[in-house]
Design a protein that fits this description.
By secondary structure, this protein is of the alpha+beta class. It is about 25% helix and about 35% strand. The protein is built from 6 helices and 8 strands. Helix 5 (about 175-180) packs across helix 6 (about 185-190). The radius of gyration is 17 Å and the shape is globular.
């Protein structure tokens, strides 16, 4: 599935408008650990590999420019497909295969998520705990099954944002904020690679 997503730093009024008449699915707590090589071979290509619980996921970029309207990623959760993408051994545990190929954890964060559904949209209100500080962010997401649907999804997302009068301002995602605060050398590398716009959104 392809994820088309926008991130927001929401005011209380915006949260009220966004969640009005939405279906509330409850609160979940996720602990995500992100992996890369010491030379950032994945993240400088805007590829994000993480472990959530016992499951590994990889997000492959489908957008082609930094000044994009929304993030667009192909989310892959099938472990054998991930091993194929990363050219890992198919034997043994995933964590061991990653370590053998030089992949190491570079960040871990705990997120408390309030999850809603409104029409075709998923709304996530996240509070990320980085240990010594927290970061609150809202995400509006629309999933499509094929690349040909992306333009339709972008227009639908734009209409949804205008309808709910959300302020469109640059926002850093959780892991990008973590890197900016905790791993500035990694963050600067992503800025230099054109993956992240300095001081702005991702």
């Amino acid at each position: 599935m392809i994820e088309v997503e926008r991130k927001f730093l929401l005011t209380d009024d915006e949260i009220e408008r966004l969640t009005a008449d939405a279906q509330f699915f409850g609160v979940v707590v996720n602990v995500d650990t992100y992996f890369d090589t010491p030379t950032f071979d994945l993240t400088i290509k805007d590829i994000w590999l993480r472990q959530r619980g016992e499951r590994f996921e990889i997000k492959m970029p489908m957008h082609t420019k930094l000044d994009r309207i929304a993030n667009q990623y192909d989310e892959i959760e099938d472990e054998m497909k991930i091993r194929e993408i990363l050219n890992l051994s198919t034997a043994g545990k995933m964590a061991d295969a990653l370590a053998s190929s030089g992949y190491v954890p570079f960040g871990s964060l705990k997120t408390t998520r309030k999850k809603y559904r409104k029409g075709d949209f998923t709304i996530d209100l996240d509070l990320a705990d980085f240990g010594d500080w927290t970061y609150q962010i809202g995400e509006v997401e629309l999933m499509v099954s094929d690349r040909s649907e992306i333009e339709w999804a972008l227009q639908k997302m734009s209409d949804f944002i205008q309808k709910h009068r959300l302020e469109e301002a640059p926002v850093r995602g959780k892991i990008i904020e973590f890197l900016k605060q905790k791993r500035p050398a990694h963050y600067r590398t992503l800025v230099e690679a054109g993956v992240v716009k300095s001081g702005e959104c991702q």
